[in-house]
Design brief:
Layout: H1 5-26, H2 50-68, H3 75-78, E1 79-85, H4 94-104, E2 120-126, E3 129-140, E4 143-159, E5 162-167
Parallel strand pairs: 1-5
Antiparallel strand pairs: 2-3, 3-4, 4-5
Length: 198
């Protein structure tokens, strides 16, 4: 009787994958090249097209004045009243976003910098949309003293020069691990235990 190589190789491949991933997960390291910021990020917020330029300049002010310097009192200058929010951590509406940053996240305003400090990789604008890609430095879960870089983005849809809708890759925080169940006391033996022979 001849055994098909497929029947042998599939279980072997599955076992190799299971065995091969255990040590890799324990010592996971980023394989990507480092994400590098543009040397002059503010130069990316311009366009020869007047509408795209206006939207990019508003995106720059959102990043620099609101997200970087936390001047959320200035949000009505750059966000519409209905500001639709797709970040699950904040509600929609100008007042809800301002409340989140000012009262929930307790962001304290700092001086608005002359030049932005946020590391920006790229800025794209098309139609009513502006997307800003940022460098994000993340600590390794198994060694927080070491970090790797990846990318974060914010995308806005603009109406009459103000951001009316927002997207980013934010997710809800992970649930804390369930508390360990209390250990039950060992059950009493049903038969008396004989004394040790001695």
């Amino acid at each position: 009787m001849r055994v098909s190589p497929t029947k042998i190789s599939l279980p072997l491949i599955a076992a190799a994958l299971l065995l091969g991933t255990a040590p890799a997960h324990a010592q996971m390291r980023a394989l990507n090249d480092a994400v590098v910021a543009h040397p002059d990020p503010e130069s990316l917020f311009t366009s020869p097209d007047p509408k795209l330029h206006r939207n990019k300049q508003t995106a720059l002010k959102i990043v620099k004045e609101l997200l970087e310097a936390n001047h959320w009192d200035r949000a009505p200058l750059y966000l519409t009243d209905r500001y639709i929010q797709h970040n699950p951590m904040a509600g929609s509406g100008l007042k809800a976003v301002m409340d989140f940053f000012m009262n929930v996240a307790k962001r304290t305003p700092t001086p608005i910098p002359e030049k932005m400090k946020t590391p920006v990789v790229a800025v794209q604008a098309e139609g009513d949309f502006v997307t800003v890609s940022f460098v994000r430095e993340v600590p390794y879960p198994n060694d927080p003293s070491k970090t790797y870089t990846t990318t974060w983005f914010d995308m806005w849809r603009f109406v009459d020069g103000k951001a009316d809708e927002h997207w980013d890759p934010a997710t809800l925080p992970a649930a804390p691990p369930p508390a360990a169940a209390p250990t039950a006391a060992p059950a009493a033996p049903s038969q008396p235990v004989p004394p040790p022979a001695g």
